[in-house]
Automatic annotation (TrEMBL):
InterPro entries: JAKMIP (IPR024836). It comes from Sakesphorus luctuosus. The keyword Ubl conjugation does not apply. Keywords: Coiled coil. It comes from the Eukaryota. Residues 14-93 form a coiled coil. One of its GO terms (molecular function) is microtubule binding. The gene is Jakmip3_1. This is JKIP3 protein. The keyword Secreted does not apply.
Length: 207
């Protein structure tokens, strides 16, 4: 009876084992499916991440390009402004020099015109008067230049004289101090000599 009961239990155990095996296979299949789904999700997230990183890089590169372009434009504008300022300064300088030359030429033309009119109107005496007047004017301008030069030289000589006087005053003061020291030493020596003489006289009288 027990052997027939054991034979009856064996198919049940085998059936239970097969059922458990099927259940494990089903669970394994579910796990594999779930794993594949997770892998798909991870792949999708990686693709999205890579796409986002790519977009960020492209955006930053675009921003950088825009900034560089703006800097180039600003640098070009600053350079053009600087060139314009230099051009205007040179133009003003050229105009000032041109006006100076024109003024000199106008004065020369006026002088020659005056001389020509004198020759036409009056003869040698009037020409002589005009030339003499021009010579006086030229001499006056030369005198003014020499006067300014002499004033500068006088000012420099006064400065040098003042320095010499200050140095001389310092030397005189130093000599006075030295003379006072010599007199003081002389008096001390005289007093010492007088003292030694008195001591010698006392010693002589004692002897």
């Amino acid at each position: 009876g027990s052997s027939s009961r054991a034979r009856g239990d064996k198919p049940d155990a085998l059936a239970a084992l097969q059922a458990a095996n099927e259940e494990l296979r089903a669970k394994l299949t579910d796990i594999q499916i779930e794993l594949q789904q997770e892998k798909s999700k991870v792949s999708k997230l990686e693709r999205e991440k890579n796409q986002e990183v790519k977009q960020i890089k492209e955006h930053e590169q675009h921003k950088s390009t825009v900034v560089v372009t703006e800097l180039k434009v600003k640098l070009h504008e600053d350079k053009m402004k600087e060139l314009q300022a230099v051009r205007e300064a040179l133009l003003r300088q050229h105009e000032a020099e041109l006006l100076r030359v024109i003024k000199i030429k106008d004065n020369e033309i006026q002088r020659l015109q005056t001389l020509l009119n004198a020759v036409r109107d009056g003869g040698p005496d009037k020409v002589k008067t005009v030339l003499l007047s021009e010579a006086k004017e030229e001499a006056k301008r030369g005198f003014e230049v020499e006067k300014i030069k002499m004033q500068q030289e006088i000012s420099e000589l006064k400065g040098a004289k003042k320095q010499v006087e200050e140095a001389l005053t310092m030397v005189i003061q130093a000599d006075k101090i030295k003379a006072a020291e010599i007199r003081s030493v002389y008096h001390l020596h005289q007093e010492e000599i007088t003292r030694i003489k008195r001591e010698c006289e006392r010693e002589i009288r004692r002897l």
